[in-house]
Amino acid sequence: MSSDFESYEQDFAVLTAEITGRIGKVPKLVGDEKKQMVANVEKQLEEARELLEQMELEVREIPPQSRGMYSSRMRSYKQEMGKLEADFKRSRIAYSDEVRNELLGDDGNSSENQRAHLLDNTERLERSSRRLEAGYQIAVETGEQLGEVVMEKLNHSLPK
C-alpha cells in the first residue's frame, strides 16, 4: 500500500518541478504563447490536486500506528501545492500589471500597493485555512484512534 503512496509521491515531485519551471516562464511570454502556457499550468495544477487526493486516500488505508509519518508528508505536499498556486497567481498578475501599465501609461503605484496588500491578505487567509484543515485532520485521526482503543478495551472487557 505504501508503494502506491510512494509512486504518487514521485509523480507529484516530477509534476511540481514541471509546474515551477512553467510558472517562471509565464510573465515572460505574450499573446497565444502565454495563453497556452497558462492553460498547461492550470491543467498540471489540476493533475497535482488529483494526485494529492489519491495520496490522501492511500494514507487513510494505512494502519493508524504508521499513519502519522504519511500524514505529515501530506501536510507538506499540501503546503507546497498552496505555494505553487500562489506563485502562479502572482505570475499572471505581474504580466497583467505590465500590460495594463503599458496601455494606460500609468505607473500604477497605488494600484500595485493595493494589489500587493490584497495578495498578502489572501495568502494569509489561505495559510490560516490550511492550518485549520490540518487541525481538523489531526482531530479526525485522533478521534479514530481513540475510537479504536475504546472498542478494543470494550471488546477485551466483555465476558466471553
From TrEMBL:
The keyword Transport applies. One of its GO terms (molecular function) is SNAP receptor activity. Residues 31-61 form a coiled coil. Residues 1-91 form the Vesicle transport v-SNARE N-terminal domain. It is found in: Endomembrane system. The keyword Transport applies. Residues 103-126 are annotated as: Disordered. InterPro entries: SNARE, v-SNARE_N_sf, Vesicle_trsprt_v-SNARE_N. Gene3D superfamilies: 1.20.5.110, t-snare proteins. It holds the Pfam family V-SNARE. The gene is Vti1a. GO terms for cellular component: cytosol; endoplasmic reticulum membrane; ER to Golgi transport vesicle membrane; Golgi apparatus; late endosome membrane; SNARE complex. Residues 114-126 have a biased composition (Basic and acidic residues). This is VTI1A protein. GO terms for biological process: Golgi to vacuole transport; intra-Golgi vesicle-mediated transport; intracellular protein transport; macroautophagy; retrograde transport, endosome to Golgi; vesicle fusion with Golgi apparatus. Keywords: Coiled coil, Membrane, Protein transport, Transmembrane, Transmembrane helix, Transport. Belongs to the VTI1 family. It is a single-pass type IV membrane protein.
